[in-house]
Amino acid sequence: MSKTDIQSGMIIMSKAYLVVRISGTADVPYWATTTMNLLKLEKKHRAVIIPEKDNTIGMLRKIQHYVAWQELDVETAKELLDKKARKSGYKKITTEDITALGFKTIDELATSLAEGKTSLSKLKPLKPWFALNPPVHGFKRSTKRLYGQKGVLGHNKELLVIVKRMM
Predict the structure, then answer these.
(1) 87 located within any domain
(2) Under a CB-based contact definition with an 8 Å cutoff, are residues 80 and 167 in contact?
(3) Please, which contacts does 141-146 make with residues 24 or more away whose CB atoms are closer than 8 Å?
(4) What is the CA radius of gyration of the chain?
(5) pLDDT in tens, 28-74
(6) Residues 96-129: pLDDT tens digits?
């Protein structure tokens, strides 16, 4: 399902993933730190949007005990860009910045990110990550277990709800 599939008359676009680092930096092995640095997840509660490629899922599965991820929708991408996107000097982004990048509106940029057509690391004055706060009212589930084991790590189907509480 990575490229454009035509199933039952619907066109499914290739997706992007929202990846959030849950664990801190202590006691993380070298190989996991390296993979997370490649994904720009240097600190706890950092979020990145990465387009779906052949190696993406492999990287995420490798570090699944330290991060949570889910497919990104356009509304969440827009909200992240509105509230948490920063440019160099840690200043909020403006409409002038978005037009300078070649997008008409923030909605167009959010759609492009959610469909995996572009990535934040390619849009130069923007930071390639979002700095999130810890979630309001906590995580509700264990941050030391995978999603299938009553935790929040790995492929988490409720991550977008948690991220909304982290903005």
Answers:
(1) yes
(2) yes
(3) 143/22, 143/23, 146/64, 146/65
(4) 16
(5) 999 999 999 999 999 999 999 999 888 889 999 999 999 999 999 99
(6) 989 999 999 999 999 999 998 888 888 888 999 9
Number of domains in the chain: 1
Q: How far is CA 155 from CA 8, 20, 67, 138, 139, in A?
A: 26, 11, 9, 19, 15
Check residue 155 and report its DSSP letter: E
Q: How many CA atoms lie within 13 A of 161 on its CB side?
A: 9
Q: Pairing mode, if any, of strands 91-92 and 86-87?
A: antiparallel
CA 58 – CA 157 distance, rounded (Å): 18
163 assigned to some structural domain: no
Supply the CATH number for residue 9's domain. Answer: 3.30.1390.20
Whole-angstrom distance, CA of residue 8 vs CA of residue 28: 44
